[in-house]
From TrEMBL:
This is WD repeat domain-containing protein 83. CDD domains: WD40. Interacts with EGLN3/PHD3. Interacts with ERK signaling proteins MAP2K1/MEK1, MAP2K2/MEK2, LAMTOR3, ARAF/Raf-1, MAPK1/ERK2 and MAPK3/ERK1. Identified in the spliceosome C complex. Interacts with PARD6B and CRB3. Interacts strongly with GTP-bound RRAGA but not with inactive GDP-bound. Interacts with p62/SQSTM1. Keywords: Cytoplasm, Repeat, WD repeat. GO terms for cellular component: catalytic step 2 spliceosome; cytoplasm. InterPro entries: WD40/YVTN_repeat-like_dom_sf (IPR015943), WD40_PAC1 (IPR020472), WD40_repeat_CS (IPR019775), WD40_repeat_dom_sf (IPR036322), WD40_rpt (IPR001680), WD_repeat_MORG1 (IPR051980). The keyword Transferase does not apply. Belongs to the WD repeat MORG1 family. It comes from Enhydra lutris kenyoni. The gene is LOC111162429. It holds the Pfam family WD40. WD repeats lie at residues 21-62, 63-104, 105-146, 250-272. Its main location: cytoplasm. It is found in: Cytoplasm.
Length: 315
């Protein structure tokens, strides 16, 4: 007689704080994991970008070169380059190892809210309050963008990139998906100003957060509304949303100092995690493990599942 297979373990939510990074760079505007989740970037209101090992709590390098606060950053697939954008309207390409500015791209008419590399890290895409997305060639000496996407009617709050598409959220209440293979633009109207968009990890869905304190899960191809998630507060700030490492939970920051986790399929609120007294402005979920970074005020908190045992004690 065959014994039944053991049930696969349910997803574990990162709800145990294992480290706090006092970033020392004013307000932390964004926190981002690198491609493999071993390092993270913090964007400061003091014009700096910092690279950390978040589980150890060690600062590895500080990148200085922006003229105003840094609002977003991303790492390349091979960890050799960083890109960042900020209040100085500039998009900066950095060499990770030396800490030097490789290129500074200017052309946006307003602050740059969001930056992403394409998969090969040959192009940086930047979204600005000026309503445009600009594509900058990292290898060229040309000062102008190789392409500008200017369909939005208001500021761009969020840009994400897959191997063949660009997903953009705008304050005009629309999510736009540019399919580069088909050369087509797909647009879904949400109605409320969009603060963050992202692809599900399986590439089938898009998650959209907006200033009506609602997250929506859309079918990427049809635009069909698959789920709505409420309970958090998001009415005035640009907050991050994301999916857990196995697409089981929807996660959002909130203006009430908590991070909210919902069951993706059921739509039910699973956990409201108290982080601090202020707005939880930025989030980053580890690509493969139940590990979450949160940014509130001038610090970043690193959260793991309850069973996690850190080497060498916790912070």
């Amino acid at each position: 007689m065959a014994f039944p297979e053991p049930k696969p373990r349910g997803p574990e939510l990162p709800q145990k704080r294992v480290k706090t990074l006092d970033c020392g760079q004013g307000a932390v505007r964004a926190v981002r994991f690198n491609v493999d989740g071993n390092y993270c970037l913090t964007c400061g209101s003091d014009k700096t970008l910092k690279l950390w090992n978040p589980l150890r709590g060690t600062l590895l390098r500080t990148y200085s070169g922006h003229g105003y606060e840094v609002l977003d950053a991303a790492g390349s697939f091979d960890n050799s380059s960083l890109c960042s954008g900020g209040g100085d309207k500039a998009v900066v390409l950095w060499d990770v190892a030396s800490g030097q500015v490789v290129r500074k791209f200017r052309g946006h008419a307003g602050k740059v809210n969001t930056v992403q590399f394409n998969e090969e890290a040959t192009v940086i895409l930047s979204g600005s309050i000026d309503s445009s997305i600009r594509c900058w060639d990292c290898r060229s000496r040309r000062p102008e963008p190789v392409q500008t996407l200017d369909e939005a009617r208001d500021g761009i709050s969020s840009v994400k990139v897959s191997d063949h598409e660009v997903l953009a959220g705008s304050v005009d209440g629309r999510v736009r998906r540019y399919d580069l293979r088909l050369g087509q633009l797909f647009s879904d109207y949400v109605g409320s100003p969009i603060t963050c968009t992202c692809f599900s990890r399986d590439g089938q869905c898009t998650l959209v957060s907006s200033l009506d304190s609602t997250l929506r899960l859309l079918d990427k191809d049809t635009g069909e509304l698959l789920g709505e998630y409420t309970g958090h507060k998001n009415q005035e700030y640009k907050l991050d949303c994301c999916l857990s490492e196995r697409d089981t939970h929807v996660v959002s920051g909130s203006e009430d100092g908590k991070v909210y986790f919902w069951d993706l399929v059921e739509g039910a609120l699973t956990l409201a995690l108290p982080v601090g007294p202020g707005v939880v402005q930025s989030l980053a979920f580890h690509p493969t493990e139940p590990c979450l970074l949160t940014a509130t005020g001038g610090s970043v908190q690193c959260w793991r599942e309850e069973a996690y045992e850190a080497d060498g004690g916790t912070g």
